[in-house]
């Protein structure tokens, strides 16, 4: 099978998965496994690869995401324990008394937390810090979790441009420059992006307010919070641990600090956190088994989705199909438009993010486009900046980015609903950043 046919097969595979997800035909894990298996069978049947080779590709793909799956299992369990123990109830009550029914204030708070959480450049850790903290508040104020995700991914997209962030480092590697040097060039666009992220929180906070969010809380006032406090030993029953509130808060803070600063696997950090939380809050094997089983459903569902996505990534990425897709896309750029390559790729970056994972986008597509740009005298750095800034905006709405499933799983939102709610807004944010880059002189044609 030639490179063009391989690229076509890749496009068909990805489009097929996206259609199945958006049409709600099946759950994500079955879509990834089913479509990827058909693609693998075609590759074997045509003699392009052997069964043994395809098995190696799938193994490599799953190996690349197994840590994310483990992270999700133990993070869900940890935050589930904290919820059962009543820690979030106390925090929510305090927030409700401070913020009241200020929906816009909650939205802006979400943006700030996401930006601070993403200083380490890790998408998974940012979701784990932001969503469990804010989701109960959103539910209390009748704000949609899709709005929480939209604000969160917008803030993460612009913060991910830092020099130690994955996309900037990958682009700098391809260019052969220091990541800090590339970051200094794109910094004006990032500043504009940060402003847009706060504007996103403000605008969508007002949209939620117009929908009626916060009115119920306003009507109940502090009585709602007091009622919640009184129910800690009622509805929460035997699982609430109000006397251990201080310990649970301290443990959660230690976990968050370790996620950001400690150079150990994130899933191990949550393993230790789960062990400590269970031993202190719920001593005894019988009660611990009950707690673990109560949270096993959501953990298993999302872990299976992430592992299935690994199968998909293994089939397409390890077989270099995504590289061939990049070459085919690059061949469609007319020679007369060559000097506008940064503009073209900037405009198309968000849709392309749904098709390419981070590595294939920067290590596969970027070198090809730089080669084309060289024929027209285009500065390679301008192509890289357009790709990094505009693509980053959409990183965490892409179904080929495992952390996306972590975010949607924590928020209790279907991936299709997340994409529908966020895609066009994120694309708009991307285009504004691109225009800002042109106006501020970062990009030249």
Describe this structure in words.
The chain has helices spanning 3-22, 28-45, 51-84, 87-99, 103-117, 123-140, 145-159, 166-175, 179-210, 215-220, 222-230, 245-261, 266-281, 285-294, 296-318, 321-331, 341-353, 358-374, 380-392, 402-411, 415-439. The protein is an all-alpha fold and 445 residues long. Helix 6 runs antiparallel to helix 7 (145-159). The two termini are 38 Å apart. Mean pLDDT is 84; it is low at 218-228 and 230-236.
Task: Using brief descriptors, characterize the structure shown.
single chain, mainly alpha
* Multimerization state: single chain
Which structural class do you get from the secondary structure elements?
mainly alpha
- The number of helical runs is 21
Q: Which residue ranges are poorly predicted, with pLDDT under 50 across at least 5 consecutive positions?
A: 218-228, 230-236
Task: Provide the residue-averaged pLDDT.
Answer: 84
* Rg value: 23 Å
Helix content: over 70%
- Terminal CA distance: 38 Å
How is this fold's topology laid out?
Layout: H1 3-22, H2 28-45, H3 51-84, H4 87-99, H5 103-117, H6 123-140, H7 145-159, H8 166-175, H9 179-210, H10 215-220, H11 222-230, H12 245-261, H13 266-281, H14 285-294, H15 296-318, H16 321-331, H17 341-353, H18 358-374, H19 380-392, H20 402-411, H21 415-439
Briefly characterize the structure.
The protein is built from 21 helices and no strands. By secondary structure, it is an all-alpha fold.
């Amino acid at each position: 099978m030639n490179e063009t046919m391989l690229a076509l097969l890749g496009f068909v595979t990805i489009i097929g998965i996206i259609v199945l997800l958006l049409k709600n035909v099946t759950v994500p894990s079955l879509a990834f496994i089913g479509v990827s298996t058909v693609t693998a069978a075609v590759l074997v049947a045509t003699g392009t690869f052997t069964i043994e080779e395809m098995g190696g590709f799938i193994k490599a793909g799953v190996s690349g995401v197994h840590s994310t799956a483990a992270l999700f299992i133990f993070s869900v369990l940890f935050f589930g324990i904290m919820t059962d123990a009543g820690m979030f109830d106390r925090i929510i009550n305090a927030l409700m008394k401070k913020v009241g029914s200020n929906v816009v204030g909650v939205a802006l708070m979400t943006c700030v937390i996401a930006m601070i959480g993403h200083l380490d450049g890790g998408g998974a850790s940012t979701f784990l810090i932001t969503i469990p903290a804010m989701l109960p508040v959103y539910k209390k104020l009748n704000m949609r979790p899709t709005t929480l995700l939209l604000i969160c991914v917008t803030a993460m997209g612009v913060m991910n441009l830092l020099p130690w962030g994955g996309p900037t480092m990958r682009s700098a590697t391809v260019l052969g420059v220091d990541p800090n040097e590339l970051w200094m060039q794109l910094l004006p666009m990032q500043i504009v992006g940060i402003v847009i992220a706060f504007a996103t929180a403000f605008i969508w906070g007002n949209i939620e307010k117009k929908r009626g969010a916060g009115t119920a809380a306003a009507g109940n006032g502090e009585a709602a919070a007091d009622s919640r406090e009184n129910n800690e030993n009622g509805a929460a029953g035997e699982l609430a641990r109000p006397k251990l509130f201080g310990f649970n808060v301290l443990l959660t803070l230690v976990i968050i600090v370790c996620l950001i600063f400690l150079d150990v696997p994130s899933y191990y950090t949550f393993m230790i956190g789960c062990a400590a939380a269970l031993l202190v809050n719920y001593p005894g094997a019988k009660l611990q088994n009950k707690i673990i089983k109560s949270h096993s459903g959501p953990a298993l569902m999302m872990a299976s989705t992430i592992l299935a996505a690994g199968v998909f990534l293994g089939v397409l990425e390890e077989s270099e199909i995504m590289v061939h897709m990049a070459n085919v896309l690059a061949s469609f750029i007319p020679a007369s438009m060559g000097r506008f390559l940064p503009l073209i790729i900037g405009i198309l970056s968000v849709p392309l993010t749904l098709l390419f994972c981070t590595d294939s986008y920067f290590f596969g597509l970027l070198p090809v486009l730089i080669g084309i740009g060289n024929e027209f005298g285009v500065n390679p750095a301008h192509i890289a900046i357009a790709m990094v800034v505009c693509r980053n905006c959409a990183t965490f709405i892409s179904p080929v980015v495992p952390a996306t499933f972590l975010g949607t799983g924590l928020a209790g939102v279907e991936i299709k609903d997340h994409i529908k709610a966020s895609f066009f807004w994120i694309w708009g944010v991307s285009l504004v950043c691109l225009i800002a880059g042109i106006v501020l002189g970062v990009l030249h044609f």
